[in-house]
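Field: sequence (string)
Field: structure_tokens (string)

Example rows 1 and 2, in order.
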Amino acid sequence: MNLNQKTLSYAVVTFVIAFSVLCGFKLKDLQFNYDFEAFFPNEDSELERYHTHRDRFEWDNEFVLLGLENKKGIFRKDFLQNVESLSNELKDIPYVNKVISPTNIKNVSLSGLAPVQKRLLHIEDESLYADDSTTIYNSPELIGSFFPADARSISIFIKTDEGLSKVKCDSLAKNIRKAFEKYHFDDVHFVGRIVAQAVYLENLQTEFKYFLIISFCVIVVFLWLSFRSAYGIVVPITIVIVSIFWTLGIMAMVGQPLDIMTVMLPVMIFIAGMSDVVHFFSKYFEELGKGTAREKIFPLILKEVGFPTFLTLITTVVGFLSLLFSSIMPIRDFGIFTSVGIVIAFILTYTLLPALLYFFTPKKLVEVHGHDNKAYNIMRRVLFWIFRSQKTIIVISILVVIFSIIGVYKIRVNNILLEDLSDKVRIKQDFLFFDKHYSGVRPLELSIEIKNKDKTVWDYNIMYQLNGLDEFLKQEYKAGFMYSPAMLSKTIYKALNDLPPNTAGFPGREDYGEVQKQLMSNKKNKDIKRIITPDGKYARINGKISDVGSIVVNEQNKHLEEYIRTHINPDDMEVRITGAAHLIDRNNEYMVTNMTQGFVFSIIVIALLTYFLHRSWRMVIVFILPNVVPLLIIAGIMGYAGIELKAATSLVFSIAFGVATDDTIHFISRLKIELGYGKSLMYAFKRTYFETGKPILLTTFILIGGFMSLMISNFQSTFYFGFLICITILIAVFADIFLLPVLLFWILGKKHKKQNDNKI
């Protein structure tokens, strides 16, 4: 027996070292990634429509905006000269497609024998600045786009090449930053996908390290307080670190990068895996302290701890695999690989941990697990108070649930594109600058398809309807940086008639003929092809709006759809909202539905598992209630605190349910074992409290400490994820300590009374 155990221990340690070395070689290939479009809902038909629209025209989020501040006002020669120099320099940067700056915008006159271009800003002639200012601030299309109302900054629009790789994006961002930094503007606000991507990835890499370090330190503290030994720290930490190492190695082997979701994976494995180790450790040294022979301890652990721990593994994995209901790939990957890591941690707990214990078990650690009269007395008093106060506990629980349900109805589903970043992050401040002083940065995109086979976009009645649509977008959304067929028509009309820039009217039918001729004769011009296809059957309206959140935008979208129904002839054309921002909003709506399905799936699976084990629907209710109540309370807290439901916060419920059930499983399993030994119900409850109380409290502190590390994140979604799960776990422990015994005593008390009556 000893020889077999020794051989098996050596084999396990050898395999662990060999596979760890392999994972170490693979880890160098592990990448960090933030793919904005990975969060588009892949089950949505609008995603395919968006890709078709994008291929037909251009990507609506491939741009950069620069906001150049001059506190003394923009009509200063030195400032405008610097803006012009910068604009010219930006054109020559690789991967820059086009630069539109107030210094290169020109008004074109087509009324003479030859086209004449007039500059919007006469930079070298300061005597014309007053006239330039009057012209600019009488041109509504310029205010909120290239000029703010306070005239203290100027905006430059940079169209970048599409589909740039991470390396090219970083190179482009670096060169743009290098270009504007040498001009020493009062302040520069630099926004766009290439900037946001770099910030996200930099934060991901930093937080990945912080999460590991903080989780490590917190868990070391709790392990020391529990086991008072370096061995009691090193061995559990080793098990969990190897689990993380293997999981990351497997991710590298299959080409799975770390992203905003999977960056939390090490913390998940760290705290979930540590729970298994603590229960194993506690039982092992408890039995050693009692004088149980070593060869009998492992079978006893398998019976009294192994099976309950296996059940907690199933419930936790079910919680994470419920994320497969999501249509968002990063969330599904997070669920899959976290489940893989937790399974690895469980396997190592029952293979590597016994092997390490076989080679060395220090006596000091055994002594720590001696009888603690003070702790036992406290637990005994708590248990007796629970039995005396059963009605009070039930009434308080019902009142808390009712109060929480009221809060649930206050929850709002909302999405703000950059809300995920802390206000301390510079790019967030830059986005807010454009929201405050300009029309915003959030893309607004409409697709137009001509349905009437006898008409094209260039027809007057089509263009007239589109002009009305433009005006509605400006009024409803306060849209800026507008680019549309009707706006192009008005620009040509002004140029043909040499009209001043502040002329806002759309040409009449009698004046439109020459405009149409100009449009059609230049239909293959690359700028015109950006908004109208050469066949005239498809068009787009593009602009920028403030990132006011999906609640407000959805309301605006309803108004827009109503306008389209009442003002756009469906026989002529079909107008649809599309674009990257629109898909992200829809993703949020899908997430809530998907996570609801996943949560229901978790409850059904765990309910069936409970019924299979206990053959009692009453026990199913007893098991489910203490774990659903904390989630109701969390939902109520979210409603009262104004924490909005979005992709990250909706994840909490399924995952927290799977994690929270662990303590319930250990408590019920231990109680069942004690009753199986023929002990009375009261004595079985007392033994269960004493046997499981310390491991449950320790794992609770470890879970909370681990999840608290997520609260240092600059990503608001990660912060709320950690915060809400911490609160859920804490409430779940109170439910297991106070509510669960009452429910169990109610069910089992009746059962035992019935058995005693039958005996009589």
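Row 2 begins here:
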Amino acid sequence: MLLLSPILVLAVGGLIVMLIDAFQEQEGGLAMPTALLHFVAAAAALALWQRGVPSDAGSLVHGWLAIDKTTLFLQATIALGGAFASLLAGGYLAEHKLDRGEYYPLIAFSTAGAGLLVAANDMLMVFVALETMSLGVYAMTGFRRTSARSAEAALKYFLLGSFAAALLLMGAALLYTVTGHTDFPGIAAALQAPSPASGAAADDANAAVLAAQFAIKLKISIFAMLLVLVAMAFKVGAVPFHMWTPDAYEGAPTSTTAYMSVVVKAAAFGALLRVFLTVFGDAANASISGGWPAVLSVLAVLTMSVGNLVALTQTSVKRMLAYSSVAHAGYLLLGVVAAPHATAGIAAKSSVLFYLLGYTVSNAGAMGALILAGRRGAETVSYDDLAGYARRHPAAGFALTLFLLSLTGVPPTVGFFGKFYIIRATLDAGYTNLAIIALINSAVSAYYYLGVLVKMYMREPAPGATRAAPMKSFYVVFSLIVAGVLVVWMGLMPERWLSLAAEASGARPAAAAPAEGANNGGAPTPL
């Protein structure tokens, strides 16, 4: 039960929030309890980290889940993102008269599903966790019931998400057909080539039969791997499976957009890492020459490039942030591509975890600053809505500036070190061309991020145009302060956080590290 406490806190807490909503006389007031649930879940994950995960943790949950430091790191990151989204919802929904109680149990249950997804060690558990997370997000996307755009966004997201789930199920079914297993270790063992020295393969006839059977199994497993890859690529928002992202981000309430951009992305990348490094992590499937890293490298280039280029053409801030989120998924995919590398693997995996944590606080902060700028009846939508905003409201403008600079990758924010570690791991793995493409795309992204700053500081609103003004919300201001402190703290002391990510990735903690000059398994060295 202790091993499952980060998930149980959210699941049971969500039921309690439902009961509170059912019996309270007035709507609202559930943002802080829901945020506290998420903070408790994050604290539970960190407490398990400090206590130490027992070696038989997998057997204690019958192999359905993998309880390790990677899981705990991601669960804490996801819970932090859910806490930010809950606080932002408390300000946004109340300001725009949408504060209905069912929103907060949806956040709690979806976050529980996300925490389950990053721990899943079985294809069936992946599907259950994915749907638990997704169904709540579909409902939150269409939460603005009177808005046709919100309903359209929810319907598109639901239909495409259901299609991706069907592909995942088909891939899992094919893997079960050829291996007889749904658990990750069992599938991985069954996909290994039979040993020529085994007794069953002693004579030539049996050897030929086994070779033919294995060739058929290999072809089916490759097709299954592609199906699973497409389903995962949809959830992370990789091109060309990103079609839902701009419409869902723009049509959903901004607090839901914040939730999708940080929690769903972190959970999807956690599942992607575990599935492909465990199930398809052998030398043949994880080869850059013909395995899934080759496919992911193409997707990474397309995702970075298309996301950034299309973001350049946007006039809506939320839609720009949607394509920005697509581009960030491309950077993260570079770390996944480098993760199977023999020497740079731990550095690549830890860079992905560090990036996810940094992106969570940066993007949640950016969405929160956008929420703060949109009072009722004058919600900030376009670049023009922000004209002169920072000059009229310096503190609120500075908040949005800080988070946009972090997303751009300007030091000393955490966004700079997130990109730096990803690109360094890509170079260490020998993928110089991919690193160069990432650097070029990062430079391109600066144009549309800085375009918002130009509007805020150097332009005045057109005559008669709506002037953005901050709303008054303790929840939003509090979340911005916490996110801002983390963005600066992680940017000024990145080695502390990267060492935690490296430990979560399998590197030995600093106290147990080998002597200077010895090989540390490819773990990043402190700055």
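free_text_note (row 2): The two ends are 38 Å apart (CA to CA).
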